């Protein structure tokens, strides 16, 4: 190590102070906090850490706590010591988070050993899932309109597609025209040439990441967020830094400090019915993000995939890109998944005109084009979007309100903000650890997503995502099981962690 960074005790204590407010042994909290700080880039690789006594004094803990935390990290390969050189930070051998796929989404769709999918159409559930109440996957079953349109396709409809060789990287013009028109109505004037058909919004995130990021680049990501985005950014080797959210979405007032500390290349946000909190980003915060893109050249990716599930019919502000002066790189994602059906695997990406050529090239390399039959179905469905939305409101509003009523009745200590759209409630536990509770809830036969699984830095440790897009009997039984699990867990959660002082 040539001229390494030497971290002081007080400065490191400031970074780690919030890491010591959770549950479990203090040394483990300290070790986990150090790892998260390394992942966030707050402690660069090669940094020499302060001696155990110095850090213990700065944190007001015993030296034994720091020694145990350092030893744990040495055993895991995160720290290395040498006589006379101190203890410094390293990445464990084989620990390449950029190359690990489906870390966040695997728990939703794959078996515990990641070797198989949990279920498929017409397939029985895995043995362990046969009696499982699943409140974890934020998705809907196919709209009846999907069946109606699929079965109404005529031979002429299909023959016009199969008469072509089928490689259409940009996407069907009819799809791009209707999507551009929808953006224009929403306040973002668009042409069909700016629209790229994608294989789901998930691919749209990947295409922007491929054009924007190199390994080690920083991405600001809302915390909590859509788990698929976390997996994509990990796959590209990005260093993700959490952008905190409040009851109105991403906290844009913290951006100046984050920009100065992290120099991000990309900012990822979900302004309409944020997944999982359900918040809607106010217009003023959208203007801040648009101005950021215009002024700095930082790429902004706004994910509107959940935005079509508008339950209360309140007017939404225009997309972030609508507030740009045209100089910034703001990409806007949409999808058929949340309103119609995820099985279509059709999404779209609206990019600035200056980016259209490169995005088309990136899509061509990715897969030569999204399936044309799915795109044709998407066109017909979008022509009936108002009717489908009315049907979804009739279905989802009673389910949302029922889940809220059941939680109020059976789990009155839990807190949440009723969302005006989306598919889930974001719940805050009064005490304890969401991951521990989710494991206990699973043993009671109900699956939920804990906040750390939706977070860059394993934060939101008391947050749970509860999906309400389930039939009434499922929601009632699910909350009954959650209440039983909480009754078993609450005595443990209520015990305040003890800190050993020197």
Automatic annotation (TrEMBL):
<dbReference type="InterPro" id="IPR015424">
    <property type="entry name" value="PyrdxlP-dep_Trfase"/>
</dbReference>
<dbReference type="InterPro" id="IPR000524">
    <property type="entry name" value="Tscrpt_reg_HTH_GntR"/>
</dbReference>
<dbReference type="InterPro" id="IPR004839">
    <property type="entry name" value="Aminotransferase_I/II_large"/>
</dbReference>
<comment type="similarity">
    <text>In the C-terminal section; belongs to the class-I pyridoxal-phosphate-dependent aminotransferase family.</text>
</comment>
<dbReference type="GO" id="GO:0003677">
    <property type="term" value="F:DNA binding"/>
</dbReference>
<dbReference type="InterPro" id="IPR036390">
    <property type="entry name" value="WH_DNA-bd_sf"/>
</dbReference>
<dbReference type="Pfam" id="PF00392">
    <property type="entry name" value="GntR"/>
</dbReference>
<dbReference type="InterPro" id="IPR036388">
    <property type="entry name" value="WH-like_DNA-bd_sf"/>
</dbReference>
<dbReference type="Pfam" id="PF00155">
    <property type="entry name" value="Aminotran_1_2"/>
</dbReference>
<keyword id="KW-0804">Transcription</keyword>
<dbReference type="InterPro" id="IPR015421">
    <property type="entry name" value="PyrdxlP-dep_Trfase_major"/>
</dbReference>
<keyword id="KW-0805">Transcription regulation</keyword>
<keyword id="KW-0663">Pyridoxal phosphate</keyword>
<dbReference type="InterPro" id="IPR015422">
    <property type="entry name" value="PyrdxlP-dep_Trfase_small"/>
</dbReference>
<feature type="domain" description="HTH gntR-type">
    <location>
        <begin position="24"/>
        <end position="92"/>
    </location>
</feature>
<protein>
    <submittedName>
        <fullName>DNA-binding transcriptional regulator</fullName>
    </submittedName>
</protein>
<dbReference type="InterPro" id="IPR051446">
    <property type="entry name" value="HTH_trans_reg/aminotransferase"/>
</dbReference>
<dbReference type="GO" id="GO:0030170">
    <property type="term" value="F:pyridoxal phosphate binding"/>
</dbReference>
<dbReference type="GO" id="GO:0003700">
    <property type="term" value="F:DNA-binding transcription factor activity"/>
</dbReference>
<keyword id="KW-0238">DNA-binding</keyword>
């Amino acid at each position: 190590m040539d001229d390494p960074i030497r971290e002081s005790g007080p400065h490191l204590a400031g970074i780690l102070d919030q890491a010591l407010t959770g549950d479990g042994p203090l040394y483990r909290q300290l070790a986990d906090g150090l790892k998260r700080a390394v992942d966030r880039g707050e402690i660069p690789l090669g940094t020499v850490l302060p001696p155990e006594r110095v850090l213990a004094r700065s944190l007001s803990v015993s030296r034994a706590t720091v020694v145990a935390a350092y030893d744990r990290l040495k055993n895991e390969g995160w720290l290395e010591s040498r006589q006379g050189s101190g203890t410094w930070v390293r990445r464990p051998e084989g620990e390449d988070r950029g190359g690990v796929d489906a870390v966040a989404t695997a728990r939703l769709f794959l078996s515990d050993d990641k070797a198989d999918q949990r279920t498929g159409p017409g397939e029985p559930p895995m043995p362990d899932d046969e009696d499982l109440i699943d409140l974890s996957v934020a998705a809907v079953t196919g709209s009846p309109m999907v069946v109606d349109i699929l079965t109404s396709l005529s031979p002429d409809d299909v023959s016009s597609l199969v008469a072509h060789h089928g490689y259409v990287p940009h996407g069907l013009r009819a799809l791009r025209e209707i999507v551009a028109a929808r953006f224009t109505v929403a306040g973002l004037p668009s042409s069909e040439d700016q629209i790229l058909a994608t294989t789901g919004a998930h691919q749209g995130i990947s295409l922007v990441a491929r054009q924007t990021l190199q390994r080690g680049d920083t991405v600001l990501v809302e915390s909590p967020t859509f788990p698929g985005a976390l997996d994509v950014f990990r796959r590209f080797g990005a260093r993700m830094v959490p952008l905190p959210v409040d009851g109105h979405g991403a906290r844009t007032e913290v951006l100046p400090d984050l920009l100065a500390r992290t120099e991000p290349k990309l900012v990822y946000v979900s302004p309409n019915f944020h997944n999982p909190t359900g918040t809607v980003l106010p217009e003023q915060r959208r203007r801040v993000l648009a101005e950021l893109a215009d002024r700095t050249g930082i790429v902004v990716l706004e994910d509107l995939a959940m935005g079509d599930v508008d339950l209360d019919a309140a007017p939404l502000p225009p997309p972030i890109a609508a507030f740009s002066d045209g100089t910034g790189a703001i990409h806007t994602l949409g999808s058929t998944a949340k309103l119609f059906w995820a099985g279509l695997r059709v999404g779209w990406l609206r990019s600035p005109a200056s980016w259209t050529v490169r995005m088309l090239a990136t899509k061509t390399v990715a897969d030569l084009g999204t399936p044309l039959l799915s795109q044709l179905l998407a066109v017909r469905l979008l022509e009936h979007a108002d009717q489908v939305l009315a049907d979804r409101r009739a279905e989802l509003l009673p389910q949302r309100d029922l889940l809220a009523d059941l939680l109020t009745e059976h789990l009155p200590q839990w807190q949440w903000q009723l969302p005006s759209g989306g598919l889930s409630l974001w719940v805050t536990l009064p005490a304890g650890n969401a991951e521990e509770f989710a494991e206990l809830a699973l043993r009671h036969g109900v699956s939920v997503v804990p906040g750390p699984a939706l977070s860059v830095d394993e934060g939101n440790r008391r947050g749970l995502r509860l999906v309400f897009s389930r039939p009434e009997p499922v929601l009632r039984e699910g909350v009954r099981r959650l209440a039983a699990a909480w009754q078993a867990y609450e005595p443990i959660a209520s015990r305040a962690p003890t800190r050993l002082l020197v």
